[in-house]
Every structure is written in structure tokens, then in C-alpha cells.
Write a structure and sequence with these properties.
Pfam families: HATPase_c, HisKA
Enzyme class: transferase
Strand content: 25-35%
Subcellular location: Cell membrane
GO cellular component, one term: plasma membrane
Distance between the termini: 41 Å
Organism: Ruminococcus flavefaciens 007c
Number of strands: 21
Number of domains: 3
Length: 564
């Protein structure tokens, strides 16, 4: 039993150690959760993006098949549907999932190309500068004219548009004042163009930055004519603006370098007789869907290749993912901390009980040892046979006193232990004065012998557990009688909700530990004046009935007060 107790003491741990051990499974669980969340996020992003890509791919193919258009018309169709397909290299998105660097991703891409029988590009989503042009009121439809910006004449314009596009908060503005157009090929090159942007505060109301730049581009090309734009409205009615009119200038499409790389990769997959779809992983969290469709346009075979490279690890997804993982980790850590705190509270109470048992055992052994040594010494002298009759009677009297003292210690210790498990008694109304008088009755000879003055103050009636109150008063009275010096005084005060016992002492003592078992107020534990259990028993009995025992001391008086 002793070895078990000592072993248990050596294994004591603190909250920090408990929490440190608990964090190991928390970290492991968080890692598993993070991996599962990553897989689930990737699955749903790619699934939704794939479904959207297939729908838009089918829409383009259906539109091409259902319309009587040529290859150039297909390119215009690609431009019209680029937001659905996701062909804009600067602002590409499929549903809510951002794909390119406009939202913090550098791996996303969208691409579409129409190849003829010879494998040459007939139409594509390559980045272009688009302008909607209408030449007269009789013209039923307006046409989109495009310009490839990788020609030397438009290099300055392209650089300026790319500079403006770097800040995604910029609202781009492009106004074409004149342009070179080829009506047969629907190609154009801007001549006089104003490029700029506006930037607003977060609330969208306050303009915080604005720029405009006028540019002139000189171009010579076969079949091109220079026209001056005189209006911007595309509506034939409700306006007196002259013709020709030009509006809705855009710089959109797949980046030239990216387009050329994807074209080189997928040109070999062109098939004029069958259609198929495939998907492959091309990097960490980067997936590439592509489709090959055979089409007939003006009786000729063409192949439409569409590609959508999805980078799911965008800044928004990354930020949301990290917030969720950190929130999960914090929640798991809080739960672990609460469980560790609960375990630590249990451990503290267990350790306190173990300390109490150890201190009680040590104190009991120490206090019993003193009278036992006295009994042994007296017995040896009696056995020696050289004592007078009077000395023998004195020794026997001392032995009896020591036995009684030891018996009192054992009885008080048992009383202290049984207070923990004893059930509360029945409350009844009684007078405190009579309880005090009864407790002091057996000590009257000692009080008279030592010249101690006893006085009573008040006679209140209380409703409480009478047996418990009597036990408390008995121990307080016993303590006061033992430690009051000769010629001193004891005063018993009976109040409505409290009782007090005040006795004179020879000097101030420390009362902080007097309610603990076997702690005495005097500086030495060698005498047999008291067992040090009386106040401990009184304190336990007071707590048992819902009361509180308070101790205080001055240089001349010791006060024990019970609040009922």
C-alpha cells in the first residue's frame, strides 16, 4: 500500500503537461481533417467546373451547327460566348471559381481554336482588340471587328492595356475615334484611340484615381480603309448620331504566349471525324479539361478544340481553406483544453486528498508518539522497584493521563473522519446560551482553579442542527479553556446569525493554518496541552451544516466566530 501511494505521488502532473500531451492527437486530427478537406474541395471545384465547361462546349458546337456561318463567324461566336466558355485570359472564371491571375491564380487558362483540314487556324480565342461597328441605318446587324495586338504597330497599345489590367480594381475605358477596317475579313486596327481607367473607393462612390492617354497608330494594309467614328450608339432609332458608329471596345481573349503553347500541345489531337473529351492533372491542384469536336462549315471539315485549365488553389480558396483549418484546430484545441482543465481539477482534488491523508497520518503518529514515550519511561521506572509509594502513585497518575490524552487524539481523529460522510441532522429551534452553559459546566473547576473569568452576552434562538452546533461549541470551548492563561477571561457571545467565543492569550499567533488537523497555536508541539484537532473538527462541522468558522487574533485576544 505504501509503495503504491508513493508511486502515485511520483506520477503527479500539471495542466501544462496534460495539455501538451493532448495537443498531439489534436495536431494529428487536424492534419487528417486538412487532408480530407483539401480532397473534398478539389473534388467539388473540378466537378462543378467540369460540368460548366461541358455545357458551354456543347453550346458553342450547337450554335455553330445551327447557324449558316463561315469560319470568321465562328471566331465572332467565340468572342460572343467567351465569358461562358471562359476564354478571357485576363478575367477568366467558371461559375464562382477563379482561374487566372486576375484572382491570384497563375496556372488557370482557357483556350479555343478552330482548325481546318490542313491543321491551320481558321478561328481562335487568341487575345484581340474588339470593336463593334455599324456603318449606316440600313445595316440590320452590327459586326464585331477584331485586331491582333501582337503586330508592331499596336505594341504600345497592348502594353498600356496590360498595365491598366494589372490592378483589378481599375475600371478600363477605351474610346476609338478612328480606325482602319477591312470589311471583307472583319479586321481592324485602331488609329486614334483614348485609353484610360477609373478607380473608386471600396464603397464605389468616391473616385480616387483616374488616367487617360491619347494614342495614334499608323497602319498600312491591303483592303483596309481609314474611317472616322462619328457616333457610339448601336441603336438605329432614338438617336440623331451620324454614321459610322463604333462602341463596346474590348481587349479580351487568351494571352498570346499561353495560346501558342496550348496550340502546340493540342494541335496533334485534332480529329476531323470523331469527337472526344479528356481530363488530366497537370500540376498540384491544377486540372486540365479538353475536348475535340468535328464540325462541318460550308461543306468543309473543321475541328474545334476547347481547353480549360483549372487552378483550384486560388487566393480566395487558399484563404478560405486556411481559415477553416485554423478554426478547426482552434476548436479542437479549446475542447482539449477544457478536457485537460477538467482532468487537472480532478487531479488537484485527488492530490489534495492524498496530501491531507499523508499530513493526517504524520501528525497523528507524531502526537501519539509523545504520550507513548512518556508511558514507556514511567513504566521502566516502576519496574525498577526503587520508587517510593508516593512516586509510584504519581507515575501511575501520569500514565493514566497519557493514556487519556492518546485516547482523546484517536477519538477526535475518528470524529474528524466521520464528519465527511455523516448526513445532516434535523433542524430545530434552541437557545445558544444554554448550549454554552452546558459546554462550560465540566470545565468550571479548571476555570476557578486558574482564576479565569467567564461571561455570557446575548441569548439568541436559532434553528439549526442542534447536535452539530453543540459539537462546534464543545470544541471551541475546549480550545478556549486550554489556551487561556491564568487570570485571563473568556466571553461567549450569542447573536442572531452568529456566535463568538473570545479568550485572552499571552501573545499573537498565526491563525492561517489553525483549521488544519494537528496544527496548534503554540510554538511547540512537544507538550500535551491540546491535540490540535478541536478547531479542525469545529470547521468541518460548521461546513457540514452550511456555516463558516472564522478565526482572528490580536496581541491579547483570540476570537472564534461561527456564522450560521
Amino acid at each position: 500500500m505504501k509503495n503504491t501511494f508513493l508511486k502515485r505521488c511520483r506520477k503527479r502532473t500539471s495542466f501544462i503537461k496534460l495539455f501538451g500531451k493532448a495537443m498531439i492527437p489534436v495536431i494529428l486530427i487536424t492534419a487528417v481533417f486538412a487532408a480530407m478537406l483539401l480532397a473534398v474541395t478539389e473534388f467539388f471545384i473540378y466537378r462543378d467546373a467540369h460540368d460548366q465547361f461541358m455545357l458551354n462546349r456543347q453550346e458553342i458546337c450547337s450554335n455553330i451547327r445551327s447557324r449558316d456561318i463561315d469560319a470568321m463567324g465562328c471566331e465572332r461566336l467565340m468572342r460572343i460566348t467567351d465569358h461562358n466558355l471562359g476564354l478571357n485570359g485576363y478575367d477568366v472564371s467558371i461559375k464562382e471559381y477563379s482561374l487566372t491571375d486576375s484572382y491570384g491564380s497563375s496556372e488557370g487558362a482557357a483556350f479555343a481554336v478552330l482548325l481546318d483540314e490542313n491543321g491551320d487556324v481558321a478561328a481562335s480565342s487568341r487575345e484581340k482588340f474588339w470593336v463593334m461597328v455599324k456603318f449606316d441605318a440600313e445595316e440590320k446587324y452590327k459586326d464585331f471587328y477584331s485586331c491582333d495586338l501582337d503586330i508592331p504597330e499596336t505594341e504600345e497599345l497592348r502594353n498600356e492595356l496590360e498595365r491598366i489590367s494589372e490592378d483589378k480594381e481599375n475600371i478600363q475605358s477605351i474610346k476609338v475615334n478612328s480606325l482602319y477596317v477591312n470589311k471583307e475579313t472583319l479586321r481592324m486596327v485602331p488609329h486614334e484611340v483614348t485609353v484610360g481607367f477609373q478607380k473608386y473607393a471600396d464603397d464605389g462612390n468616391k473616385l480616387i484615381n483616374e488616367e487617360q492617354k491619347d494614342m495614334i497608330i499608323n497602319f498600312e494594309g491591303e483592303g483596309y480603309e481609314l474611317i472616322e467614328v462619328k457616333g457610339t450608339s448601336m441603336m438605329s432609332k432614338n438617336t440623331d448620331e451620324p454614321y459610322p458608329r463604333a462602341s463596346i471596345a474590348h481587349y479580351i481573349g487568351t494571352d498570346s504566349g499561353l495560346f501558342d503553347g496550348l496550340l502546340e500541345k493540342y494541335r496533334s489531337k485534332a480529329n476531323m471525324s470523331t469527337a472526344y473529351f479528356s481530363s488530366e492533372n497537370v500540376g498540384t491542384f491544377v486540372n486540365e479539361d479538353y475536348s475535340v469536336d468535328s464540325l462541318k462549315i460550308d461543306g468543309k471539315d473543321y475541328c474545334l478544340i476547347t481547353v480549360c485549365r483549372i487552378d483550384g488553389w486560388t487566393s480566395q480558396i487558399r484563404s478560405l481553406y486556411l481559415r477553416i483549418v485554423l478554426l478547426f484546430f482552434a476548436l479542437a484545441a479549446v475542447i482539449a483544453a477544457l478536457l485537460c482543465w477538467r482532468k487537472d481539477m480532478f487531479n488537484r482534488s485527488m492530490y489534495a486528498f492524498e496530501d491531507y491523508q499523508r499530513d493526517l497520518t504524520n501528525s497523528l503518529a507524531h502526537d501519539i508518539k509523545t504520550p507513548l514515550m512518556a508511558i514507556g519511561g514511567y513504566a521502566e521506572n516502576l519496574l525498577d522497584g526503587k520508587l517510593s509509594e508516593e512516586e509510584q502513585r504519581n507515575y501511575l497518575s501520569s500514565i493514566i493521563s497519557s493514556v487519556k490524552y492518546t485516547d482523546d487524539i484517536i477519538l477526535n481523529t475518528l470524529e474528524l473522519n466521520t464528519l465527511e460522510s455523516r448526513s445532516g441532522g434535523k433542524n430545530e429551534e434552541f437557545g445558544l446560551r444554554k448550549v454554552f452553559e452546558k459546554a462550560f459546566e465540566k470545565y468550571m473547576p479548571i476555570l476557578e482553579e486558574n482564576g479565569i473569568k467567564l461571561s455570557f452576552e446575548g441569548d439568541s434562538q436559532v434553528c439549526a442542527d442542534k447536535a452539530a452546533v453543540e459539537k462546534i461549541i464543545e470544541n471551541l470551548v475546549s480550545n478556549a479553556v486550554k489556551y487561556t492563561e491564568k487570570g485571563g477571561s473568556i466571553k461567549a457571545i450569542s447573536g442572531k446569525k452568529r456566535i463568538s467565543l473570545v479568550n485572552t492569550i499571552s501573545g499573537k499567533i498565526d491563525v492561517s493554518k489553525l483549521r488544519q488537523p494537528f496544527v496548534k497555536g503554540d510554538s511547540s508541539r512537544n507538550g500535551m496541552r491540546g491535540s490540535g484537532l478541536g478547531l479542525a473538527i469545529a470547521d468541518k462541522a460548521a461546513a457540514h451544516i452550511g456555516g463558516k468558522l472564522s478565526l482572528s487574533c490580536t496581541d491579547k485576544e483570540f476570537t472564534a466566530e461561527l456564522k450560521l
